[in-house]
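Feature request, filed as a ticket because there's no other form

It would be nice if the structure record came with a short human-readable summary line next to the tokens. Right now we just get the raw output. Example of a typical job, pasted below so the devs can see what we mean:
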Amino acid sequence: MENRWMQRDASEARSAFMQKVYAWMFSALLITAGVAYLSASSSTIIGLVYSSGFGVFPLIIAELALVYYISSRIDRLSSDRARLLFFIYAALNGVTLGIIFLVYTSGSIYNTFLITAAMFGLMSLYGYMTKKDLSSIGNIAFMALIGVIIASVVNMFLNSEALYWIISYVGVILFTGLTAYDTQKIKHMYEVTAHDPEGVNKVAILGALTLYLDFINLFLYLLRFFGRRD
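Raw output as currently delivered:
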């Protein structure tokens, strides 16, 4: 009986941890969406960032630097500072993504978001509930991600429509699989740090960042299929 109660307490603690991960991830998505909409509505930001392709590059570099900094120094950062940096990253990403409101209709963006949320929710639930080891998916996804990055760079010069759609299909499959894999990985990371409250908070932030990236990338690839241009 005592062992059963201990298992129940552990399960409830793990569920509470995952709720925190999703809450911070959802908060970051709200920040990104709000900043993106406001950026697209600002003639000043449109002029500084979107009118010239070079205006986006400093933001992208800053975003990559923040993701690397948070991921590599999570052990040294306090959970509060890590969360603040995560939200700053979400805001910067919102500025970068504001251009989608200038390219696609608001209705198609909203519909794509709902489709993304449904796919993400199902795959994340699968990753959390399944007993199957998804490590093999992680290894395949990593190789696929390298391939997608290289193909995307190459297609910047080739401008091949066929390659564009191949990359799009692979991107959707890639980040759908990564959602399940990363959810399972985050659950395992929690079990390692469950005895350390501060460590649990840090893992929750890192997990929220990871799933946030999966969601955003999945959304952007799906937008290629479901987005309708003005």
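Something like this underneath would help us a lot:
The chain has one domain: 2-226.
The chain has nine helices and no strands.
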